[in-house]
Amino acid sequence: MLYALARPLLFALDAEFAHQLTLELADAPLRFGLLRVARAPGAPVRAMGLHFPNPVGLAAGLDKNAAHVDSLAKLGFGFLEVGTVTPRPQPGNPRPRLFRLPAAQALINRMGFNNVGLDEFLENLSRASWRGVLGINIGKNADTPMARAAEDYATCLERVYARASYVSINISSPNTQGLRSLQGKEELDALLARLAALRAPLAERHGRRVPLALKVAPDLDATQILQIADAVRRHGIDGVIATNTSESREGVAGLPHATEAGGLSGAPIRARATATLAALAAALKGEAALIGVGGILRGEQAAEKLAAGATLVQLYTGLVYRGPDLVSECVSACRERSRTASTASR
Asked: Looking at residues 242-248, what average pLDDT do you find?
């Protein structure tokens, strides 16, 4: 309700400035002990060997620097994913780089993995008191040659391993030149082999096996989906996040900002993202957990992701248009969908 009142003011501001302002405002009551935990209904699930109090998570990108974990944890999420973090700090692409398309309930962003780098990122996490399920999304620096991309991912995995509940491998942002080439058959095989081999000694050193999840694009053809599923299976990857933003402009053509470069998110990509999710579910046959992301603006759309094969879902653009109430709405819808599916299977 409060967000509905604040939204016209926020939408009058530059999109990136409003994004940062919202995070700062969320932190303010926490500093004075005034922020209470949102009571989302219980809907526990188990995925990737982890226990989630509910299946609705925050997608990576909203808290890139892990600077607002305690505030965001109060909103009723079952888990948070922070990042994308790269080994070294980088400013990202020039501003403006985030655009609202309200008529389509969509965003276009070309942020470019702007972040403070591993050192400050981990310092931020060390100050967070929340100890729920935390995903850490990792990527490569823009100036790292593609031939050495695996080194950046390996550096990130080693550094964040101790703090992460799971690590998300982001190879699907359209805003780092060449990054999506890592979804190619040979490139993906080499990257996942490197990270899977690194995880074994890390698990022994830290006394626990941290799950790995792969974040993929919605703009994949049937052959690419089968190749990704095969690589995930062979390298023991625990989950797939479907999906990142889209390079398509289907559903927004002719709208202001529709021709801006970057990734499209929100309502227009929901069908595309869900189709990719369903295709991965068919290919993987339960051999890896699926996290459904893309176009969730109502509770029933979160439940739709579960019906397509997801165990967990994540929100981002929907929060911009609907605010924090979307979290509990999605938890309730997912709980009801799971209850109905369980009853039907008896």
From this structure: 97
- For 136, the token pair is 């850490």
Rounded Cα distance between 79 and 55, Å, is 8
Per-residue pLDDT tens for 326-343? 999 999 999 999 887 767
Catalytic residues: 173
Give the mean pLDDT of 247-260.
97
Q: Which two tokens stand for residue 254?
A: 């002719």
CB of 171 within 8 A of CB of 214? Answer: yes
All domains of the chain in start order, with CATH: 2-335 (3.20.20.70)
* Percent of the chain whose pLDDT exceeds 90: 89
C-alpha torsion sign, points 254, 256, 259, 262? negative
From the list 248, 240, 310, the residue with the least C-alpha distance to 274 is 310
Q: Is the CB of residue 43 less than 8 Å from the CB of residue 340? A: no
Global pTM value? 0.95
Evaluate the omega torsion of the peptide bond into residue 84 and state whether it is cis, within 30 degrees of 0. yes
Determine the pLDDT at residue 4.
81
